[in-house]
Specification:
Layout (H helix, E strand, L loop, with lengths): L2 H22 L1 H21 L11 H19 L8 H9 L4 H4 L5 H27 L9 H24 L3 E3 L3 E5 H22 L3 H29 L14 H22 L1
Antiparallel strand pairs: 1-2
Helix pairs in contact: 1-2, 2-3, 2-6, 3-6, 6-7, 6-10, 7-8, 7-9, 7-10, 8-9, 9-10
Length: about 270
């Protein structure tokens, strides 16, 4: 099977799983996002597998990140009544004991890298669930989150196709040598068109979807560049191999990880 066919098959499967979870409902969305998030945290720690400088607390990082995600969702859904600080205080402060008990060269670096995915990965994935859970009167529950992913996928796909066809001017060559300004402009234009088309089909707020598309496109590119920078710092090509032809989960979610907080901010402004 050629790489192009492999990429298409696994890409389609990934899209089907993501969209199906949105259509099934709240529980499926929370579980699928949590599943991908957990893999993403693991992939991030794998960046430092061979590092002599940084040794993150991987079990604590993964379990703590997943616990934080679950706690935030349960609290958001009002499924328990205890004070969230009863969980957050030990979660945030107990790992500092590792400075005393671990024999590593740079314990502060270890802690910083351990905590970092909780902001970079856990928080955006929780906001994706918040976007799903933000109801708009007379529209399906999934309308906002699906629109976000459609715009992200449109931006990624058409930036790649436009850049491959017309790309000559490098965007930021030292970070991502294959990205071009022509590709970025092509992705932006088609993201705007995707937002307009989606708005037309769902009967949504035209101004919101235009503004959202205008912000999501550059935010997605920045998210992609941020992850590319991480990979260059640790000298790896892909974040993982779970999706043949695509790389890892972080490779698939890098754009939406950065775009989701901005998209949710716009939701709060408009709705």
């Amino acid at each position: 099977m050629s790489n192009l066919v492999t990429r298409a098959v696994w890409g389609a499967l990934f899209v089907v799983v993501v969209i199906s979870s949105f259509l099934v409902g709240q529980n499926a969305t929370a579980i699928i996002l949590g599943f991908f998030m957990t893999i993403g945290i693991y992939e991030f720690y794998r960046f430092f597998k061979y590092s002599k400088l940084v040794k993150p607390l991987i079990p604590i990082g993964i379990l703590g990140g997943l616990g934080l995600y679950i706690t935030l969702i349960l609290k958001d859904l009002s499924l328990f009544n205890f004070d969230i600080y009863l969980f957050l205080i030990p979660l945030l402060f107990l790992p500092f004991i590792s400075i005393v008990v671990r024999k590593t060269a740079h314990p502060l670096f270890d802690l910083a890298i351990t905590f970092f995915p909780w902001i970079y990965i856990v928080f955006p994935f929780f906001l994706m669930f918040q976007i799903f859970n933000h109801a708009i009167p007379e529209q399906p529950q999934w309308v906002l989150i699906l629109g976000l992913f459609i715009m992200i996928w449109s931006n990624d796909s058409f930036a790649y196709l436009t850049g491959r066809t017309f790309g000559k001017t490098k965007l930021i060559e030292r970070i991502s040598p294959k990205k071009s300004w022509e590709g970025a402009v092509g992705g932006f234009i088609f993201t705007i068109l995707a937002g307009i088309t989606y708005c037309f089909f769902i009967g949504g707020d035209f101004l919101f979807w235009i503004v959202a598309a205008g912000f999501v496109s550059p935010a997605g590119i920045i998210g992609d560049l941020i992850e590319s920078k991480f990979k260059r710092l640790v000298d790896v090509k892909d974040s993982g191999t779970i999706l043949p032809g695509h790389g890892g989960i972080l490779d698939r979610f890098d754009a939406v990880i950065y775009a989701a907080p901005l998209f949710y901010f716009l939701i709060l402004l408009f709705y």
